[in-house]
Amino acid sequence: MLALSGLTAGYHGGTALHGLDLDVPAGTVHAVVGHNGAGKSTLVHAVAGLVVPASGTVRVAGTDVTGRAAHRIARAGVGLVPQGRRVFAGLTVAEHLKVSHRPHRSPGAGSSAWTPDRVLGLLPGLAARTAHRGGQLSGGEQQMLALARALLGSPRVLLLDEPTEGLAPLVVQQIRELIATLAAEGIAVLLVSPSPALATDCADAVTVLTSGRVTAHMTGNTARAHPEKLREALSLATP
Amino acid sequence: MGVLDAQLVPAVDGVAYGLLLFVVASGLSLAFGTAGVLNLAHGTLYAIGAYTGAELSDGTWGGLALGLAAGTSAACAAGALLSLATAPLSRRGHLAQALLTFGLALMGGNLLVELFGADELPVRIPEALDASVSLLGHRYPAYRLVFIAMAVLLAGAGTWVLTRTRAGAAVRAAADDPQMLATTGTDPRAVHTGVLAAAGALAGAAGVLGAPIVGPGPGTAESVLMLSLVVVVLGGLRSLWGTLLAAVAVGEVQTLGVSLVPDWAPYLLFAAMAAVLTVRARRSALPEPGGGAGTARAGTAGAGTAGATATAIKAARAFTAAAAPVRRWRRPARTGGRYAGRARGAGGATGRARGAGPFIALCCLLAAVPWVFDAYSITLAGYALSLGLVAVGAGIMTGYAGLPTLGQTAPFAVGAYTTALLAQAGWTVGPVQLAVSCGAAALFSAVTGPAVIRARGTTVLMITLAIGELAGTAIGEMKSVTGGTDGIGGFPPAQPLWGAGALEGESAVYGYVVVVTAAVLAVTLVVLRSPAGKLLTGTRTAEERMRASGHPVGRYLLLAHIGAGTLAGVGGSLMINVQQYVSPADVGFEIAALALLAAVIGGATSVVGAVLGAGLIVFTRDWLSASWPGHGPLLLGALFVIAVYALPRGLAGIRFPTRRDGPRGTPATTPGNGSPDTPPSAAPSAPCSDSSSPSSPGSSSSDPSSDSSSDESPARKAPS
């Protein structure tokens, strides 16, 4: 569903990501782990169109979207839950849903479009707070709101940038379950996190990124069966 | 009851006037609050509507409808064009965009005069409305009552769109975080264009409907812009209700105020504006008070959320970003010489010698002028130098202290009128004139400084604008001292020294001006190169850290303000020697904008650049336009536009186009550095990391907004 080949990107003329190849089939969760500065967010931004890749291609459901503007990539079926949530502080939850809902978007085959009602059904915590502004929500609620915002575009590919950062264990558990639910809906999930725990818990494949390059790759089952392998890859990855 | 009764008509007039201003100002507020464009061409959009409406008005309903459709569409299209024009500057901060719109306003005003003539156009309203109705025993024009109803309708519709519809929510989301809006599939640029087009349509509609109240003429654009700015400032950007209240208050001041207290009315507006801004700036612990922060939470008063705070800081930083890139492009001797940590064996001495080069070159250039040019050009050069001193002051405020100012004409006026009055009284010794003028300007700046230095960002522009306008109004009103709008002239020329002969002839005056300017600039350069300049730079780039380090930041800024004012005072005194005449037109808003532009053209932190910028401006406005009469504003506007696009870092930035680019960009993206994982817009708002020095070039990487100069900025999306 999401296919990256030779993806190179960076900021200010420098390069943070060197020729990354990655394939995330529909209905699977692919975790990219790495330390701060490994290029994880650059990866997410390059896919979402917030950074223009220097070279390489980004394909969504077979369509080459490389270099398109962020809103076009979003319309091609890429949803982003950014690091730090970045909800619209001045908009109410209801307005978030209104702004991000794209009723005319057709999701991938085999899944139905996301509507505000369906999203609120999935995230009941938000339903009670529809009249509150984004800035008034707790961190967990903001994370749910960011997820809701991404889902309302009926994405085929969902990018999650450190979705559990700074959240309470209970909320982290909720998010794990949500990720599994969304993958079961047929969404290709690209999860980026510094934490190997989250990756091993819910990923079908795990990639370790070091200084913008892939230094290890394993299936989710391997990572679950041999968590030490992932740890080792990560500690080797210490810059 | 009698008084109330007598004032009923002006009071209702005030409501009509206020609602007119409300419709115009809400467009201005929308454009600034949600699209981030301080649109100084907004008055011109009104004028477009007013001229179109007046031209098509023929006393029939059809004429009014046609005028409304045509005027609104024309202004709407002009607004959309403004959006396209400002889009490439969106990463350059508000100052660049404001200067661009000012240039476009100058050009547009000139074109309007060309199309419709320099006279005020008469407006014919439909006959059915051209009657008067009885209002509590008074006859009152029916049209105004209808206008009140129309304005209320427009306001209601606008509020509804902004607060209840998806488009309105998208507009507010774009103001909050355009990148995140893009990731939901909405093009933030389209929203930006839509907002400016809608703001233009509002101004155009107001122009057509309001033409019978504020008719189309050459001065319309500026007066409407000024009044709308006052309304936006008084009302704040957060709530349409605030804007409405402020608009009606301004309308009442302009009608009821004139009727009740005619002597005080001219001062009321700008005094109220200055007072409100000062109080608001004092109340707020933030760098930028929410009211001027560019967070239009329209219709949601009291949205003091964390996000609003973050946006406020972002807006304030984005604003000074206009000056920030410049800092990196300055000669390395000043910014980097001592602190950059690079191998720089020769240290300060070499830097100082190298830095003096442009100044010496400037002096040589100035000395050559009398041998090359004719008398008129020499006079212009002298005038350019006096304006250059004002520009240097504006540059110190903008580039060093981070307080972009439109009020340097006030100390300039103080200096000019002081010298003029001294000369009139027989005190013709140059140094005495200079000393007294300097003192007066410094005193003035010391008194007004506290109001200026508490604010940050756009609010500074507004406060200084208010101070400048107040000073201008005071000069116009105190006819017995200043000669009012007629100005003062006919005083004896100055003597360069005690006992010396009077300055006769252009070359002698010019020589005097050059010597004084060179001396003043030399002192300025020495002061700016001393630790004082570094302290100011530190204050601008990392104010909280400076405060935390125990620096009395307020005192530094006040001293900078006084210094800038003193420079303007010298400029004013010299201008008198050059022109032998002064009138309020010499110290008006346009001159303030010119001084700011000169500083920006020069490179904001470059003293020599500011003087050259002033020279370029005077050359364009007075010398070039002499060969194409009647098109001075057009040429000047073109200069604004060209300067903003072609000289993003000013004249001072031309010299090192590529050398400084590499070392700055690379460290920020070195793998493992941590910053690539952080999108600039999500970076912490407080400058952190680099602790070597606030004035080192490297510290700019901790300021999210200062990344704006990079063409490869992450938010710059693919060619769309």
UniProtKB/TrEMBL annotation, chain A:
Name used for this protein in its record: ABC transporter ATP-binding protein
Pfam families, sorted: ABC_tran
PROSITE patterns the UniProt entry points to: ABC_TRANSPORTER_1, ABC_TRANSPORTER_2
MF terms in GO: ATP binding
UniProt keyword Transport present: yes
Keyword terms of this UniProt record: Amino-acid transport, ATP-binding, Nucleotide-binding, Transport
Region annotation Disordered: where it falls in the sequence: 220-239
The keyword Nucleotide-binding appears for this protein: yes
Family label: Belongs to the ABC transporter superfamily.
Residue span(s) of domain ABC transporter: 2-236
UniProtKB/TrEMBL annotation, chain B:
Subcellular location: Cell membrane
Region (Disordered): 656-720
Main location: membrane
Comp. bias intervals (Low complexity): 683-712
Record bears the keyword RNA-binding: no
Alphabetical list of Pfam families matching this protein: BPD_transp_2
Membrane topology: Multi-pass membrane protein
Keywords attached to this entry: Cell membrane, Membrane, Transmembrane, Transmembrane helix
Segments crossing the lipid bilayer: 15-41, 61-82, 94-113, 142-162, 224-244, 264-281, 359-378, 384-403, 433-453, 460-476, 509-528, 556-579, 591-619, 631-648
Protein name in the entry: ABC transporter permease
Native species: Streptomyces iconiensis
